[in-house]
Amino acid sequence: MSTEWPWAHLTFVRNRFIAAAVLLLCSSLPGRAATTPSPNGKYVATAYSVSGKTASGQYTHRHVVAADPDILPIGSRIRIQRAGRYSGEYVVADTGEKIVGRKLDIYMPSTAECKKFGKKKVRVTLIERGDGTTETARAADQVVKEDAARDVEKGVVGRAATETDWAAKKRQPQTPGAPAQKQPPQ
After folding, report:
1. Which residues, other chains included, contact 17 with Cβ-Cβ below 8 Å and sequence gap of 6+?
2. Burial code of 131-148, b = ≥16 C-beta within 10 A, e = fewer?
3. Structural contact between residues 51 and 129, judged by C-beta atoms closer than 8 angstroms
């Protein structure tokens, strides 16, 4: 037997330790995709009705959600499914102390609506990732509003527009001579 073997083994172990340390260091660098959890998938959604400025600097309104910025940065556009009449497109414009991990808080203008919504398991699809800035949140909000308005005009509900958007459109007075509004698909 060779007496070099134990030393060769120690060199191998040392090299493995160095490689592991380098991998650990590299994985902690900012902007590394491997450390960012996938934003798509199942979330637990609740609702809030506190009016005021969001973390993005915008005021609360429909189609705004609070999310964990480590998973869904401010300014991200998302589609929420399985949220009943609130399924549709939203912009992440807010955060919260209790919104950690795969949780969402959907803004609704009334406490009664929030209580009725309760807590739901929903599915989220990232449409466009935000960069955490106010400018991105404003731009994403504008796109969400345009998408929702376009879907309401087409009679599509659940893609960008929610049933609440359709109900608001339905309450608006009809102009004389305008064609009757279609019912949203069920």
Report:
1. none
2. ebeeebbbbbbebbbebb
3. no
For the whole prediction, is pTM greater than 0.70? yes
Question: How many Å apart are CA 145 and CA 161, to the nearest integer?
Answer: 9
DSSP strand pairing (41-48 vs 103-107): parallel
Name the CA radius of gyration of the chain, rounded: 24
Which residues does the chain have with pLDDT short of 50?
A: 1, 32-34, 175-186
**CA pair distance 125, 78, nearest whole angstrom:** 6
Residue-wise pLDDT for 108-159, tens only, equals 999 999 999 999 999 999 999 999 999 999 999 999 999 988 888 888 777 7
